[in-house]
Batch of 2 targets.
Target 1
Amino acid sequence: MGEKQDRRIIRTRKEIKQAFISLLEEKSFDSLTVRDLTERANINRGTFYLHYLDKFDLLEKCEEEVFSRILTIFNAAAVIDVLQGEDIAVRLPFFVRIFEYLQEEAAFMKVILGPNGDPSFQEKIRQVFIKNMQDNILTGFNLSSLQVPIDLFTTYVSSAHLGVIQYWLNTGMKESPEEMTSIIFNILMNGPVKASGLITMDRM
Amino acid sequence: MGEKQDRRIIRTRKEIKQAFISLLEEKSFDSLTVRDLTERANINRGTFYLHYLDKFDLLEKCEEEVFSRILTIFNAAAVIDVLQGEDIAVRLPFFVRIFEYLQEEAAFMKVILGPNGDPSFQEKIRQVFIKNMQDNILTGFNLSSLQVPIDLFTTYVSSAHLGVIQYWLNTGMKESPEEMTSIIFNILMNGPVKASGLITMDRM
DNA sequence: ATAATAATCAACACGATGTATATTATCGAA
DNA sequence: TTCGATAATATACATCGTGTTGATTATTAT
């Protein structure tokens, strides 16, 4: 299941994934069958089982790919001093890169975060957002001044951000990754932050 | 499928619903079968089909019940002047009642909004929140001062609120409905509102 | 050109589905 | 309490999707 050198393997998996996305645009994951999948992909049903254990395995593999990419982006960001630079999009390069990646994988992200999507994946992504917030953003604030439980605050913000991402994907991604980053962090910095009683450490 | 006078019908449907919730706490909706359902409910498999077309129909009926109750609460609120009174929980009675109802239906709400839940239902609930915001809250503001697209603002807030509700359900509902209303609206009024450029019409 | 291997095809047992029929148990109302 | 109505049961059935197997064909990399 590891190597992908052979053209036939690459081609088959690509068509399976395309059929998968295409089907998820129409029906729920529960109600789609391996038969549906292979018919749309124009491959033999048996061929599917040469690549995946079942449809759940396919979903998992697709999600895993996205998940590890997002983790990589956030981890790369951790070594950067996020508070340097003037423009918010420059100061928060990982968020710009997240939006760029979402744009790249828009077809899959749209269905997996959509009404026929997977709520457990949604939750996993949210947890990554929360971790990133704690590691790369909240470090610049005095947490002792919080008037709201920290978990409730991170839940609020991460849910809001995920919702905005869904909105962005569903409205055709008209704003650029830089614009989205600015919008989100403008609301974050001037909004829930003050509301929750957070006080910036010093600068700005 | 309409009348429920007969005790046997009431009893059977109640046990099916209980088994449904109980199973959703363990496994995903996709992977549970009608057989699972009827075994746990201690009824004959055929009996299930006397009440529901299939497991999807069961899910739909359960969701419909919750949905109409929430709609009723918001609609009742529409006739009240939400800006009267001093305390935020008094000024926004419909949100308190929403939390009260969620508490009442906690078992089902927890699973249906959880990792094994239904994202399409989640989205429907969010749309109701948005509608309520537009009808009962944003009427008190000058929308022309918005610096962010109105849809993006309502998406942000409704997603955040739904996230907080999920958090509340999953942490054992320690805060009272009144406390939750205060927390949410404190963040809303002092947070995203200012951030988005909203200006209050006059008072406060 | 050739050896390796991916994809196809046909067939299989298995389990869940949805339906139908006859029978039993329980209900509400007189 | 009785009795007609009907909900629940037990059983059987055809259908469909699943996951696997073995033999065959087609495509690949070298």
Target 2
Amino acid sequence: MKLGNSDYLPHIAYDSVIFGFSGEKLKILIMKYHNTGLFALPGGFVKIDESLNEAVRRGLQERTGLSNIYLEQFYTFGNVERHIPEVMATILRANNFDTEGEYEWLLDRFFSVAYYALINYNDVIPKPDALSDSCDWYAIDELPTLMLDHDTIVEKALQTLRDNIDRKLVGMNLLPTRFTMNELQKVYEAILGEKLRRTSFQRKILSLNILERHEKQFSGKAHKAPYLYSFTKK
Amino acid sequence: MKLGNSDYLPHIAYDSVIFGFSGEKLKILIMKYHNTGLFALPGGFVKIDESLNEAVRRGLQERTGLSNIYLEQFYTFGNVERHIPEVMATILRANNFDTEGEYEWLLDRFFSVAYYALINYNDVIPKPDALSDSCDWYAIDELPTLMLDHDTIVEKALQTLRDNIDRKLVGMNLLPTRFTMNELQKVYEAILGEKLRRTSFQRKILSLNILERHEKQFSGKAHKAPYLYSFTKK
DNA sequence: TTATCATTGTCTCAGTTTGTAACAATAAGA
DNA sequence: TCTTATTGTTACAAACTGAGACAATGATAA
């Protein structure tokens, strides 16, 4: 990836909170920049002749290998206080990029349009970008401290996800195609941060008429085998 | 208002959908540009050293005279297709502003961060800005065609308002301090675009424990006088 | 004064949804 | 065959909602 100042719109960036579900926990992708100890959300910039949503999809594909990701834009952060040029300067210098000339625009003040994405954990092989040495999953209750206002961004993403959980189908994107009712319940519990009642949950989800029942899944455990379900796409 | 290129961040604008309630209808403020026949949402730009939210409040105060307005950011529009430099060139020329030099930056591509505001209709005396000759209320079902993607912005604002109506207190900002239950119901009906049942609405609102009951309001009409209510602020 | 009218506050009652528990039906191992 | 953990389903009370009934009440007309 090149970051020359001729290709991108100045002052505008995006950051993405990429949610996955594994080990009964909700996790997000976090990048670590070379030789700085700085952690950040995956983000990027918008090309001169590119739409905002296209730019975000392009960036997410580069980071996860996935196209056709479920995406929601949730807020644009534009406080003066989030402009701390020393942070970007540190990152650039750690990567031997000159902070004058071609890359100087990266030190300017930026607005960040924030998106959250819901993806199937097992489909992804996270890839760091040119400035970072890792891109890894972190459980949302075990996050490192993030640079700038990225902690706030994550918090707002999670809040929006919770607010949306009953209006937009959330489980669809965090689970494999076929799953048990219990797995779906675990996803809801991880997002909401609270236990749910089994029978109420089952009744509520089934009453939405969005699930198709398939064969049973035999786990080898000594108890009744649960049915597998999939979402009916329409 | 000056619009010289040294004061504002390039490529970033905001637009606001300012809701008011009058004559049993939901209305929004629309500006008309001098000698162009172009209608648009009130908007503006962000100064170099100013936070986004500050900029929006500053602009709204200039347009309405109100400070302390209820504001929600709801989406950022960044499609390539919304960049039609001829439109802004038309507006500038109609105001005898040179499209080269100091104001040339206004012809660039812009992202627009969109907000909606809820205000008390009677508190406002709309004021046009430097480029427009009017700033007036239009009922949402009688809007003129708006320039660029401003129709889309209004539609999304209304959709967001409807989605939020049960989660955020909406009536509070669209009515005077004291109001009758019927007036509040009319606000809900205008926003949702459907009739509501009187008794159900009353029961639901009262069960929220957010209203304080005051003296009756005698209208001079030949029927029982309704109580006045106000929101309990906490 | 009395009758009429439109609107309001409250109540009722049935139908629906939700919280909670109970119970029978498994799969696999002992 | 018995035990154990988990699942699908049913049952029942509590809470909520839709729809209507009804009395109370300001003002006007008779």
